[in-house]
Design a protein that fits this description.
Elements: E1 11-12, H1 13-21, H2 23-31, H3 41-57, E2 63-64, H4 65-71, E3 75-77, E4 81-84, E5 90-93, E6 97-101, E7 111-118, H5 125-142, E8 148-153, E9 162-167, H6 170-187, H7 208-218, H8 229-237, H9 243-248, H10 251-258, H11 263-281, E10 285-286, E11 301-310, E12 315-325, E13 338-343, H12 349-363, E14 369-371, H13 375-386, H14 391-400, E15 401-403, H15 404-411, E16 412-413, H16 421-427, H17 439-450, H18 462-487
Parallel strand pairs: 1-5, 2-3, 7-8, 11-14, 14-15
Antiparallel strand pairs: 3-6, 4-5, 6-7, 8-9, 10-16, 11-12, 12-13
Helix pairs in contact: 1-2, 1-5, 3-17, 5-6, 10-11, 16-18, 17-18
């Protein structure tokens, strides 16, 4: 924000929010080596969402800082709040927006309330407690109580943002005091708090590279595919503290022990041990001998399908197809593959989008449609249903859709901590053209390309970057599918040499 960094002993709203997400993240934000911090697109997306929500809430341009408050502006940004909290602890907060409300303050016959924008569909402690901190300091600044704050979300794409009021109750203020005391204790540690039990959210964190390296080095239980926070705590209770412990466990005895946590946990115990051993030994394990992709036998070609989405807007803005034909000798002609992006603009409507998709699929009748994960299948089928496609055609469409991820999981156990496309394709040697890019980058580029709306486009290069990333995801999906085909006992020699190693 261009502000002077707070003193080392000051607790800020940003540190509090980091701590609510992950105790370790807050410590690293304060003490970590900044050179090991990675830029993520999520921060930019958050700021973009915030801007959209605030403009929808208050179309007029806000005023800035103390001068804006003294003038009684309807909205104020850039006010830096300082003060003291429970026990005299130094506090600081930067409300992204202050909104004028009725009341009295030192500035006149009005007062202000802090406003936050949220991503996602619900409000959490990550919104409530930082707002409580802002309210505490704002009360000291304006010399008037803050009775409630505001959380807005879901703005943009022509929709009004949802508004959730957060009452500054005694209970919330007590929660804030407790959280600040715990935050200070964590920040005063010489070493960072332990790795998070559930590390699925780490993909959003700028410190993920550092923590991933530590997790791999110590054989953290979260490194075993299939283990989340709850199962990790169960295993620790049983004396299993890392990957090596799990790999060395007796699967039958562990299944019996885990039954006490629920039958479903006992049922997966043997699978978890087998997965840990697979990762320890670094060797894939075949789970069944049948062909993983029988739909490709006799097909004239395949369509590899991947979409890019804006989840908050519930808008799939790109449907990408990688068209791969079959040679006359039965091998896959990778050199003749062609990429076809179908861009979906909100102003065109879903009906036009479906017509284009349906036409493309009909031109390639008999070609299986490969995708990785259920997102593409669900999006396409639900769109077809909304467009009134007859049940017979829906059945045919469902029969063409082949989830490569599901086939990997059913046919192989891999020495990987994730069965996601990035992990499995990289294991096969595939390299993305744009290093470090993910779906969040694609969404950010989409918004940058959209610019200010239908008649004004922003960054013209961004669309090309999106297409490149989407095509790479299609090619990565094929790299995994190609590996499955080459492992199949019934695959012909020509099909085992498709000519595409994925890179």
């Amino acid at each position: 924000m261009g502000d002077t960094p707070p003193a080392a002993n000051v607790l800020t709203d940003r540190l509090l929010r980091s701590w609510l997400r992950c105790r370790r993240k807050a410590w690293l934000d304060r003490h970590g080596d900044a050179t090991k911090r990675r830029w993520t697109a999520h921060r930019n997306l958050m700021l973009d969402d915030q801007q959209r929500c605030f403009v929808a809430l208050m179309p007029q341009k806000p005023a800035h800082g103390q001068a804006g408050c003294e003038a009684g502006a309807a909205g104020v940004v850039g006010l830096r709040l300082k003060g003291r909290g429970p026990g005299g602890v130094l506090l600081e907060a930067h409300p992204p927006l202050l909104r004028r409300v009725s009341g009295r303050s030192r500035w006149g016959d009005f007062a202000y309330q802090p406003v936050l924008a949220r991503q996602g569909r619900r409000m959490t402690r990550e919104h409530q407690l930082p707002l409580a901190l802002m309210a505490l300091l704002l009360e000291q600044e304006q010399q008037a109580p803050v009775r409630d704050a505001l959380v807005v979300g879901g703005g943009g794409m022509g929709r009004r943002p949802a508004r959730d009021r957060v009452g500054m109750s005694a209970g919330l203020r007590k929660q804030l005091g407790d959280a600040l005391r715990k935050l200070r204790l964590d920040l005063d540690r010489d070493d960072p708090p332990p790795l998070a039990a559930d590390r699925r959210k780490c993909t959003l964190c700028s410190w993920r590279g550092l923590c991933n390296a530590e997790a791999a080095a110590e054989g953290h239980l979260s490194e075993v595919s299939g283990i989340g926070a709850k199962r990790r705590e169960m295993l620790k209770e049983l004396g299993i503290h890392g990957l090596q412990d799990l790999a060395a466990a007796d699967p039958d005895r562990l299944a019996e022990q885990m039954q006490r946590f629920g039958e479903q946990h006992g049922d997966v115990a043997r699978t978890l041990v087998a997965q840990a051993r697979c990762q320890r030994d670094g060797q894939p394990e075949r789970l069944q001998d049948s062909p993983a992709l029988p739909e490709l036998t006799g097909a004239p070609g395949v369509l590899v399908y991947d979409i890019e989405s804006d989840p908050d807007a519930r808008h799939d803005f790109l449907h990408g197809f990688w068209r791969l034909p079959l040679r006359s000798d039965g091998s896959w002609d990778v050199n003749a593959a062609r990429y076809q992006p179908l861009l979906v603009l909100a102003e065109h409507g879903e009906q036009r989008c479906w017509k284009r998709l349906d036409r493309y699929l009909r031109v390639h009748d008999g070609w299986p449609v490969l995708h990785y994960g259920e997102t593409e299948s669900l999006a396409l089928r639900r769109m077809a249903e909304r467009q009134g496609v007859p049940e017979r055609e829906l059945t045919l469409l469902r029969g063409r859709l082949v989830d490569v991820h599901a086939r990997v999981r059913s046919h192989w156990r891999l020495p990987l901590n994730s069965y996601g496309l990035k992990a499995v394709a990289a294991w096969q040697g595939f390299r993305w053209s744009q290093e470090g890019v993910d779906g969040a980058h694609a969404l950010l580029w989409w918004r940058q390309w959209q610019g200010d709306g239908q008649n004004r486009r922003g960054n013209t290069n961004a669309l090309g970057w999106i297409f490149t990333y989407n095509q790479d995801d299609c090619r990565a999906t094929w790299a995994v599918a190609d590996w499955l085909l080459r492992q199949s006992p019934s695959t012909s020699p020509s099909q085992r040499q498709s000519g595409d190693g994925g890179s």
